[in-house]
Amino acid sequence: MPTYLTPALAWRRLREGNERFVSGESLHPNQDASRRSSLIENQNPFAVIFGCSDSRLAAEIIFDLGLGDAFVVRTAGQVIDDAVLGSLEYSISELRVPLIVILGHDSCGAVKATKAAVETGEMPPGFIRDLVERITPSVLTARRNNQDDVNEMVVEHVKQTAARLADSSRVISDAIDDGRVAVIGLSYKLDEGRAALVSGIGKL
């Protein structure tokens, strides 16, 4: 059955799951055979999580979720491209997901590589260069704001990624304007496991 959660209720559900994970009291919900069987014909996730590909940032684990709960999209440094935009638009228009989460984390390797490229002028080889080019505006903005720490740059990149989604996609911006969808930016701390709110677009 569809959840029909509001953006605020979806965020509360994620927040409560993250608190369980932080405190070591995860429930591991919706991970049994009956849940698997109930999802054969359709899915009704209550959030779409667009996060970094980092192996320490497994969305279903850090928010204590199970099968069918979250539609997850991941790229290194949570970098947006056309496939990401298409995936997020699909979650909004077809799956009616009420909440888009941008999930960054401290000590992000992609942001570190971009910081190094900006400081040295030396770009990495291959398609890693594409990642760095897409993260560079966030690093430059952070530096203009006298934020030279990589974790401060991560937060800026999360904020800019959220804003760019709303600017780039008519599907997403219309859903925000209608009050059906909100976009939040979270920064995850690897040591304590907590995902902290750093930005919000739309009604929560």
Automatic annotation (TrEMBL):
Q: GO terms for molecular function, please?
A: carbonate dehydratase activity; zinc ion binding
Q: Which residues bind Zn(2+)?
A: C52, D54, H105, C108
The UniProt record lists the EC number as: 4.2.1.1
Keyword vocabulary terms for this entry = Lyase, Metal-binding, Zinc
Q: Which GO biological-process labels does this protein carry?
A: carbon utilization
Name the cofactor(s).
Answer: Zn(2+)
The superkingdom listed in its UniProt entry is Bacteria
Reactions that this protein is recorded to catalyse: hydrogencarbonate + H(+) = CO2 + H2O
How, per the record, is the cofactor bound? Binds 1 zinc ion per subunit.
What this chain does, per the record? Catalyzes the reversible hydration of carbon dioxide to form bicarbonate.
Identify its protein family.
Answer: Belongs to the beta-class carbonic anhydrase family.
Protein name per Swiss-Prot or TrEMBL: carbonic anhydrase
- Organism of this sequence: Paenarthrobacter aurescens (Arthrobacter aurescens)
- Identify the coding gene: cynT
